[in-house]
Amino acid sequence: MTRRATTTPAAARPALSPREGGGALGDAVSRQVRALRESSSLTRAQLSERSGVSVAYLARLEAGAANISLGVLEQLARALRVPAQRLLVAPAEPGSDLELIVAWLRGQTAAVQAEVWSALRARVAPADAPGPSSVRIALIGLRGAGKSTLGARLARRLGVPFVELIREIEQAGGVPVPEIFTLYGASGYRTLERSCLKQVIERHDAVVLATGGGLVTEAGTYALLRGAFRTVWLRASPGDHFDRVRRQQDARIAAPALERVAMANIRTMLAAREPLYSQADLTLDTSGRSVARSLAELVGLLEPAVRSGTPRSPATAAAPGP
Hints:
The protein has 322 residues and is an alpha/beta fold.
């Protein structure tokens, strides 16, 4: 008689080699999961049934003694009916001012959240606090703005590494970006994006970073970026964005009907994200400019900051057309 091997689903199986305490992030997750479970009047058994995560694993997680995977975070977030990133932040004391502020901010748009963060940072930051590294530069903007093309050339000019955040995310996730969205949803992607950004900051004191176009919609991640990098919005007209993406032979705009939809989407996204992109330290308009000219203007914009290492007020480069 052949014996059948039985396996425990990966999501329900406790991770191996638990870390003692799990550090600050592990402690935040442990406390938040427990606080949300109790505020939902759920027992561990009920949360286990709803999430597919074993009771034993939940007990270890709440004790701060379990390795936590992105998949488990997603399962628990769905079961607790909260965004996955909320599990990464320790809960505020009940009834505290912090709890009230956080609750209010969660109901605001990404633009309002970013504006509040900017005002708060300007209000409470010490006058002698160090600014962003003079050679840690992040390029933001929609796809087709020139982030990868200009970023690689700028990095060579400055003699620093060039990093594309999307490639870091794919490497960390083990699959291409579309599959990350399929497996974990937008919330899982944004959590991974922020984790990878933190790793870039930890690894590089000097770097040019090309970000994904939607990073600015996640207020916490955008605040982290702006606090550690000299940010530059590579701005372009909807038509230029469209033409550059089309030259990349994107299958999503291969047919005339798809082209009309793509152009409409570009206009909509630009309008929605402009208040966020415009909060960058510097803005460079790349519309109608060659790569060589855009690079020269970008280097000129950044030269004072790279030379002095001191923060600059937001500025815009808008030279006449070629």
